[in-house]
Amino acid sequence: MTRARRMTLLVTGGAGYVGSVCAARLVEAGHEVVVLDDLRTGHEDAIPHRARFVRGDVAEAGPLLAEGFDGVLHFAARSLVGESMTDPQRYWWGNVVASVQLLDAMTEHGIPRLVFSSTAATYGEPESVPITEDDPTRPTNPYGATKLAIDHAISSYAAAHGIAAVSLRYFNVAGAFGRHGERHTVETHLIPLVLQVALDRRDKITIFGDDWPTADGTCVRDYIHVTDLADAHELALDRAEPGRHKVYNLGNGTGFSVREVLETCREVTGHPIPAEVAGRRPGDPAVLIASSERARTDLGWKPERAELRTIVADAWDFARRTG
Ligand code: UFG
């Protein structure tokens, strides 16, 4: 994707999974990218070579923003649902307070654009699927609650201070972009865990419940390729309007059960991937599927790697590369 105008952009969390992929794509599109990351969960070697790296905390972005930027892409966050239940303070301070400090600094230094990583977790247990942006937001864990709180803060800062803001609510992000992929120290996500089994780094995968009200009894999720997600960020930067805060769901609109994901991973890797069924994981909704009609219509977003097989194949290439 190409843009007419080269922008200078601050990418918070640009050493993390989604942040590093987006930073890499922005660099490729010709933008000048500065990555701000404290490396608490990110990896320095994931930062694109042509981006400038500043190690630091989002809450202290002020002096950096004083240099002048066309926009901020704010990925840096605590993002483990389970941890958010046991250590909520990390989420309220690390996500909400730090983001409000970032908004203050953006306001002080007149930074005109913001694209924020929001999440499907802001909706909680949906009444119906696919989920639209107008559906009720009733998060079932502190992680989702903190992301929703930031969305509210962004709305008021955009209205009061003229920031052109977009929140992108990711559903289940997977896949990789070359050397940029998912490698969390504490891994909780289905596809990377399954691929660890295929690499013989774990014996088996645990299926969290097969008594859900779904066709095969396992939870259903909407998987989106990380590069399609990155494309949406570029479009959002382009289409953001001063004084407005727009919210878009990002998914493919198709759900796959845990068993279907396992089957696809077996096909892609050629590994039998043993699985055992355990109890449900607290806080898991049965089905999460996005309606991304608004992103398609308003942003002109069109996912190019929507097939689950493609998503898994790219994640597998990355997993084998990083071992
Ligand atoms: N699962 C298993 N076994 C595992 C890991 C996951 O059966 O070892 C299941 C989960 O129960 C769930 C599905 O696989 O049904 C997907 O789980 P992930 O942990 O990969 O993803 P989540 O759907 O829990 O998480 C995603 C985003 C979060 C967001 C959440 C909203 O990654 O950021 O949706 O519910 F908060």
How would you sum up this structure, described in words?
With 323 residues, the chain is of the alpha/beta class. The chain has 10 helices and 14 strands. The protein has helices at 17-28, 62-65, 81-86, 88-108, 142-161, 190-198, 226-239, 258-269, 293-299, 308-322, and strands spanning 8-12, 32-37, 52-55, 71-74, 113-119, 164-170, 172-174, 205-208, 220-221, 223-225, 245-250, 256-257, 275-278, 287-288. α5 (142-161) links the parallel β5 and β6 (164-170). The radius of gyration is 19 Å and the shape is globular. The structure holds uridine-5'-diphosphate-4-deoxy-4-fluoro-alpha-D-galactose.
Beta-strand proportion:
15-25%
How many individual helices?
Answer: 10
| C-alpha end-to-end distance | 30 Å
- Radius of gyration over C-alpha positions, nearest whole angstrom: 19 Å
Helix content: 25-40%
The number of E-state strands comes to 14
Bound molecules: uridine-5'-diphosphate-4-deoxy-4-fluoro-alpha-D-galactose
Sketch the major β-sheet.
7 strands, parallel
Structural class: alpha/beta
